[in-house]
Design a protein that fits this description.
heterodimer, A: mainly alpha, 13 helices, 2 strands, 67% helix, B: alpha+beta, two-stranded antiparallel sheet, 9 strands, elongated
Amino acid sequence: MSHHDEFSVHKEKIFTPAFFALLSLTLVGFYFIAVRFIYGIGAVANLSDGYPWGLWIVYDVATGTALACGGYAMAIIIYIMNNWHYHPLIRSAMLTSLFGYGLAGFSVMVDLGRYWNSYNFFIMDRWQTNSVMFEVALCVMLYNIVLAIEVSPAILERLVHSDRERFAKAKRFARWIYPKLDKVLIFFVVLGITLPSMHQSSLGSMLIIAGTKLSPIWHTWLLPLLFLINCIYIGYSMVIFEATLSSMAFKRPQETEQIAGLSKVIPWLTALWLGVRFIDLYTRGYLGEAFSGSFLSWMFIAEVTFICLGAHILMWPKFRTSPRMTFLAALMLALGGAWYRFNVYLIGYNPGDQWTYFPALPEFMITVGLISFEILGYVVLVKLFPFMPKVHDSSASSH
Amino acid sequence: MKKTRREFLRTAGLVSALTLIGSETALASEGVVANPNAVGMLYDSTLCVGCKACVTSCKRVNDMDAAPAPFDNDRIWDAPSDLDWRTRNIIKLHKEEDGTFAYVKRQCMHCVKPACVSACPVAAMQHDERGIVVYDKNICIGCRYCQVACPFTIPKFEWPEALPKIVKCDLCKHTNLKQKGLPACCETCPTQAVIFGKRTDLLTEAKRRINLHPEKYENAVYGEKEIGGTNVLYLAPANIEFEDLGLPTLPEESFAAASEKVQHTIYKGFIAPVALYGFLALVALKNKNRLKDNHQADKHEEKEGE
């Protein structure tokens, strides 16, 4: 599965103004992370006993991993639905996923109160397998490793095809391991489809135990199914989002054909999701409540509206080939999908009137810093290693 | 592509059927299991005079910090307004519009099916053979899922600490209960508003009191059935709702049991994930080989064309 002719290094300057802007934000974030570890979580966050989970868990982990589901969604369409037309997009999608999930893992380490005890996850005696979070944690850890392995061919390829004498030992190792990895990679790719199916649905299951603290507009035993479908259409939307942005930022042609194809699939997924959502609300008797005009009902309408609007745009063939319209649609779908997750984890969650939550500035800057770090890592790596799809004259598309 | 879709659907159907069968037979009863040895407390609000001796003795026995009032920077006086990381047990006052009032004692409810125990990924929250829910800070990773899971929002977190832990009532398991046979609050209470005993006995006693003086009590024992039942039971004065005392209205269904049921249905025996992996691997390998064959065929054609 050597793809030397399919991917290329984006040979541009690394130290751009954008690089330094992102680096500054990253450093600010890391400063506040240091404050968190020296002075405690209360010193940087507005979390409370009523709201023990805030921006870090709700965005970085629960929503961020969905936004990082591009690799998962693309792996399904390429390797399972047998559509190799999309293969040029796989590496950049996997890299985005690696950084997104890495961000989630890093955020968890910042959020954990007694982080020094986290080795307990590796002691079988301590495994409490009834806990949904247990499964999510192990699954995400494993998936991070799988993503690193899936990204490694791009890293290795530069070493393998290098003519220079530097890093001879590393290059020898790379040349030895690359063909071996090539043979077994498919088994890791399949694991990389199995694992997110598990933990993305379980991210939904996690809030079942919250019971009456979660509004009935969102609380349902179908949460795992809704979260699973949700992460797949968010995944495709993020591939469109990231591919469009990369083409613009790196002044490369748009992958119009692939994006049009993905755009065709998304409305089916959102239709399925909306169907499950509405039928569930109806059978549980809360459809009226969802449209009652209360604050929470408006949050529900927001999540559904953005998803519907985004999907609606993609139902028109003319729009599916327009970079502007597909980008807009992807943005709306990601926003609506993310809003849904925010509703389940935070907005629809009511522990009692004596508690309120809104992120504190340091708390917010930590998230911003980690996201900047994620983008920074992506931008630097695509300039060092062959992640981007190679620009072939025959497939160059006109705007 | 057509052939693959048909095969895909056929294999999908087979795997789904197998998984369903597998999970059906493996479904354990995660339901609420009554423990005949369970101990707990009975709090009778009609007997409580709001002296808060229980709050003081709890702090003394468990060596806890004072929770100062906003004006007391010197922290001379312990004046908690609610449970937090310094206060495991508290008395609150509820006033009605017509001047009637009632006190309520709040602490861990030691649920029959504790959500915190179900939620904790590393079993830092456990319930023992007597149904006492205890926390072990040596295992806890501080993820705070127990706080999300508890319908009473009982586990409190040491937010101002760099090395924080979770704090909650543990029925004095390692302290007063061990040394003197009952929790400090029950030992101290001058009016016996809160008493310790086996849950079955306490429930009988609670109902006896309601039957003896029906005009004095709300005709219900809070904690008898809520979310599967709690080991700490409550009696309220007549005409005062439990909800007004801050005890949330909860269904009999245990959400912890529901969560476990969903999780077990999907993952029992790890059958479904392995089946999914196996199925996906078969499809992916077939697709990959077909791609390789197509590539070789193309190369062959190119060669022949030359």
